[in-house]
Automatic annotation (TrEMBL):
The chain crosses the membrane at residues 12-30, 50-71, 140-160, 172-190. The keyword Glycoprotein does not apply. It comes from Sphingomonas cynarae. Pfam families: VTT_dom. It is found in: Cell membrane. This is DedA family protein. It is a multi-pass membrane protein. Residues 30-159 form the VTT domain. It comes from the Bacteria. InterPro entries: DedA_domain (IPR051311), VTT_dom (IPR032816). Keywords: Cell membrane, Membrane, Transmembrane, Transmembrane helix.
Amino acid sequence: MTQFILDWIAWGGYFGIILLMALENIVPPIPSEVIMGLGGMAVARGQMQFGWLVAAGTLGTVAGNYVWYWIGRRFGYQGLRPFVDRWGRWLTVEWEDVERITRFFHDRGGWVVFVFRFMPTFRTMVSLPAGMARMPRWRFLIATAGGSAIWNTILAAAGLYLDRRFQELDRYVGPLAIALTVAIVVFYIYRVVTWRPRAG
């Protein structure tokens, strides 16, 4: 997997980074930690510029998250109810869960979008309730870009630092990413099998 991403970066350059980071935030195929970390390694090898790498990664992150924001804004809070009622069994959620998430978002304010950019899974999922709550578009984009730029800078810097240990890192990144994907699938299956709706 590591070599595949490196080859993609070499072929697509900054556009490849944008595309990978956008996809990672829509349907996460590859963790952003891996994408930006390997991008940092490309910087160490003179294949990229650090500033442009961070800019490309941030642009891709904002684009991917905006898709979920747009979905939430397009369907709105009540607009999702038929979908949840019909597919909640497979999503392992009920309407009460959606209401609780929305209340949490309203209570905590827009800073949640910025802070959650540093948290795995939540950094993408928070975009949906932001759209559902009709958070101002400019505020969402600024919070997303700001948090993403900081996080992507950290990841790229880590890759830059670890470039000398590439062979050692390569030995673990691929199997670790595969193991993480398998764990997510297993956990989802477990949730579906054991999920029960609330009484009443």
